[in-house]
Each structure stands twice: as C-alpha cells, then as structure tokens.
Write a structure and sequence with these properties.
It comes from Caldithrix abyssi DSM 13497. This is DUF1450 domain-containing protein. Helix content is 66%, strand content 0%. It has one domain.
C-alpha cells in the first residue's frame, strides 16, 4: 500500500465516514457523480479542512 499522505488518509476517512464532515450535500454529490473526482476533491480541500472540528481531527489522527 505504501505510505499514506494526510490527504489520502482524509479522502479514505471521508469515504468511510461521510457524516464526519459538514459538507453541503450538493457539493458531495457533485464530486461523487464525476468520473474524474481528483480535481473537484482537490478544490474541496479547503472546505474539508475549514469545516473539520479540532475534536474530529483528533479522532481521525487516532486512526493513523
């Protein structure tokens, strides 16, 4: 599997825990429905980080 970057980990975590992030459903569906998800997800990075609470981040990091 190789080393996992924080971005890859968060992307995987988001797939496993879709309710962990307070994303607007329309944005989430827009990304999920695209064949090429990478670019839209990268654009969403700031939203993902900005809406993630400190407690949720601690929970995520415990899984590393």
């Amino acid at each position: 599997m190789g080393s996992m970057t924080l971005y890859n980990f968060l992307e995987d975590y988001l797939k496993r825990h879709p309710d962990a992030f307070e994303l607007e459903m329309s944005n989430c569906l827009d990304v999920c429905n695209r064949e090429s998800c990478e670019a839209p997800i990268l654009k969403m990075d700031e939203k993902i980080y900005s809406k993630m609470s400190v407690e949720k981040l601690k929970t995520i990091l415990k899984e590393l």
